[in-house]
Amino acid sequence: MIGAALGAAGAVVAARHTGKAQTHSQHTHWRRQVRRDAYAKLLQAISEFTERGREVQVLLKQGMAPAPQALGEFRALLKELEEAVAAVELEGPKKVATAAFNVMAHLAMWHACLVTDIVYRVDLSIPRQGRSVEEAEAAAIEAVVEFKTLARGALDDPSGALDITQ
């Protein structure tokens, strides 16, 4: 009788431990999925933004200015990029969020350089100052590569799935 009671108690403790481990595992998996979705949304926003930026850059190299509507759409893509970065900042971890913010800052600088070049081409009396479009684009590409590397690392490390401080 005592043996049966001890056996039953052991089974209850084991079941409880297994339940907690399974709950933790499911939460870790969910957290990783949420992060992956946030990272993917940012990468999509980066892709759309850089595609439009390169279209503007080609027009400028051909001596033409993009239509005002195209510039408005380009600016709207920057807003989408900011929203995607906010999601990554929320989901973390910190090093990936910092890299995402860095991407946004460099792409915003590239955007500013492109707009500056447009203004400069329209009114040549305005002196061209600051970073070149090509330098800004190269810095943005470097920031994107760093983000991708850190994001992959965060997704591949299941031990840090619940840690937002790293």
Total helix count? 4
Mean pLDDT: 82
Bin the helical content: over 70%
Number of strands: 0
This entry's quaternary arrangement is: single chain
Instruction: Decide which structural class fits the backbone.
Output: mainly alpha
Query: Could you list the spans in which at least 5 consecutive residues all have pLDDT below 50?
Result: none
What fraction of the residues are assigned to beta strands by DSSP?
under 5%
Q: What order do the SSEs take from the amino end to the carboxyl end, as H and E?
A: HHHH
Radius of gyration: 24 Å
The backbone outline, from C-alpha atoms, is: elongated
Whole-Å distance between the termini? 52 Å
Described by strand count, sense and barrel closure, the largest sheet is: none
What does this structure look like?
The protein has helices at residues 2-61, 68-91, 94-122, 133-156. Helix content is 83%, strand content 0%. The model has no long low-confidence stretch (mean pLDDT 82). By secondary structure, the chain is an all-alpha fold.
Short description:
Helix content is 83%, strand content 0%. The protein is mostly helical and 166 residues long.
